[in-house]
Automatic annotation (TrEMBL):
InterPro entries: Gfo/Idh/MocA-like_OxRdtase_N, Gfo/Idh/MocA_domain, GFO_IDH_MocA-like_dom, NAD(P)-bd_dom_sf
Protein name: Putative dehydrogenase
Similarity remark: Belongs to the Gfo/Idh/MocA family.
Domain of life: Bacteria
Alphabetized SUPFAM superfamilies for the sequence: Glyceraldehyde-3-phosphate dehydrogenase-like, C-terminal domain, NAD(P)-binding Rossmann-fold domains
Pfam families: GFO_IDH_MocA, GFO_IDH_MocA_C3
MF (Gene Ontology): nucleotide binding; oxidoreductase activity
Keyword Oxidoreductase assigned: yes
Chain ranges of the GFO/IDH/MocA-like oxidoreductase domain: 129-239
Record domain Gfo/Idh/MocA-like oxidoreductase N-terminal: where: 3-119
Alphabetical UniProt keywords: Oxidoreductase
């Protein structure tokens, strides 16, 4: 049994915790939080025998093999650093950290200690996204020429963590990482990035991004905390086009159109979510003795943090000043 400790008790901790608990060869053995009462409540819900009122206690639990870091990104480095120092494998929610400097420190610590670390970018483990990636890699799709993707929705409650600069708020880190992540997965690092957008409440409230590549390929991406975006994606190659239903990063339906107009529909099997894929990836890589994932390499996580930090620096506030 692969034994997991859950760091934090919010919605994503609960969701992934239930996915772990449902796997026949995994179990949640402990939950940690700054609130012991919340840790006990989630531990009871997930069938975990131990609950702790601090993350330091959680990582010291001898019955924990892997720590899933589900705190706001402002606390990712803090918790991951404790877990790595304790020799625990780490699955850390996306984005890997709140800043590039934090992400670089986290990766350096894990590599120096020889401890497994992976960003929980569940989009990369969605079976339909993986199918699309294989089609592109095999040449079946042709050369990718354009990508369009969006993800955003209004968040009217200004006390929500997404509007809180101290918690790593803003559209880009939490939502924009998905459109950017799709472009990164299929096209790599761009030659040029153009960003338009606006600040509100001290965070990036919205951003439109154009990525341009050396071979002329491009990606048009959109994210927002103030507008209801479509959440779909379209990938166009020289031989095929793929349309991904919303939300594209967790899509359950993809339609591929070939050069003759023939349409093929791919539908996700029930239960085969990206969450399942990412926790099984941790299991499989640990069984091999690996310290990184080839599906979600740490160098890709660092490259994404560079893009996010660059994009955030280009969003302007209403007076025209840089963010």
């Amino acid at each position: 049994m692969l034994r997991w400790g859950i760091a934090a008790t919010g919605g994503i901790a609960r969701t992934v915790g239930h996915v772990i608990a449902a796997e026949p060869d995994m179990m949640v053995t402990a939950v940690g939080s700054r609130s012991l009462d919340r840790a006990r409540a989630l531990a009871t819900e997930l069938g975990a025998r131990n609950a702790y009122g601090s993350y330091a206690e959680l990582v010291r639990d001898p019955d924990v093999d892997v720590v899933y870091v589900a705190t706001p990104q402002s606390h990712h480095l803090e918790v991951a650093e404790l877990a790595i120092a304790a020799g625990k494998a780490v699955l850390c929610e996306k984005p890997l950290a709140a800043t590039l400097a934090d992400a670089e420190k986290m990766v350096a610590l894990a590599r120096e200690a020889g401890v497994f670390l992976m960003e929980a970018m569940w989009m990369r483990f969605n079976p339909l996204i993986r199918r699309l990636q294989r089609m592109v890699a095999s040449g079946e799709f042709g050369r990718v020429r354009s990508i369009s993707a969006s993800f955003g929705f209004p968040v009217p409650e200004r006390d929500h963590r997404l509007w809180n600069p101290a918690l790593g708020g803003g559209a880009l880190l939490d939502l924009g990482i998905y459109p950017l992540g799709l472009a990164q997965l299929l096209l790599g690092v761009p030659e040029v990035m153009t960003v338009t957008g606006a600040m509100e409440n001290g965070v990036d409230a919205e951003a439109g991004i154009l990525l341009s590549y050396r071979d002329g390929a491009r990606a048009l991406l959109d994210t927002s905390l103030i507008s209801p975006l479509a959440g779909t994606a379209q990938v166009t190659g020289t031989r095929m086009r793929a349309d991904l239903d919303a939300p594209f990063f967790a899509t359950d339906r993809m339609v591929v159109t070939g050069p003759d107009g023939e349409r093929r529909e791919f539908v996700l099997d029930p239960g085969e979510t990206g969450y399942v894929g990412e926790i099984r990836e941790v299991r499989d890589r640990l069984a091999e003795g690996a310290t990184e994932s080839p599906v979600m390499p740490l160098d890709d996580s660092l490259a994404m943090m560079r893009l996010l930090e660059d994009a955030r620096s280009r969003v302007i506030d209403p007076t025209g000043a840089a963010a």
